[in-house]
Amino acid sequence: MSVSIPKTNTALMALLKADFAVLRANRRSAILALLVPVVILISWKPLIPKLGGAYALSAAITFGLMAIGLMGYSITVARDRDKGIFQRLRVAPVPTWAIMVSRLAIQLFMIMLLTILIFIIGKSYDGVTLTLAGYVITFFVAFLGGAVYLSLGQLIVGLIKNPETVNATTRIVYFIFIMVGMFGELGTLGEQVKKYIHYSPYGAVKMMLATSMIPQTWSSATSVAVLISIGYVLLFAGVGIKLFKWNTK
Length: 249
Fold this sequence. Notes:
The protein is mostly helical. It is built from 11 helices and no strands. The protein has one domain (8-243). 80% of the residues lie in helices and 0% in strands. One of its GO terms (molecular function) is ABC-type transporter activity. This is ABC-2 family transporter protein.
């Protein structure tokens, strides 16, 4: 009796279908990840005349990317690993890479949804309108920014096995990035901190996004931010993938 092994694309589609079903089941967490940047954007409306529309929109998208990569991806992976889901999938006739591609595809969908939502809220409520080039470039740059925080999430689950510790760590990192990034960039924490913020994951991603919204302001500093972001992705993902364990034992 022969055993029929499903094709890779068939297995990948089945994984995607299952992961989207999980996303729908956990829609409360997904909504919260999208709600935080929306609330920030709405609350910053009085500051837009002073700071600029690009500043407000880029900050909101950056905060959303943090939530997706840190509290969305890493916590979900840690929880499923603890439940033994990855271990069971590995003995199934499914390529290992397809398991992670399916998970990442869900996060890319969330990044797309976040970016479009911020564009809509920014235009309808805050009155911030970009050029067509600004919308298109920012849309694609958001995926690079998302990759920074997804790879950081991968690093956390690679270094830490316990799901509760992963949960606590990601929330602490998220809080630090928001507080230090937001206040540090405004100079509240001193000029030295403000200087180094630009080279942090928060500063590099935000600079890319803000400049992408006004393409004519693209400068060498923006190109450096792109290179720094790529460096963060390679470093975080490289270490995180190397140290990642498929089970908690």
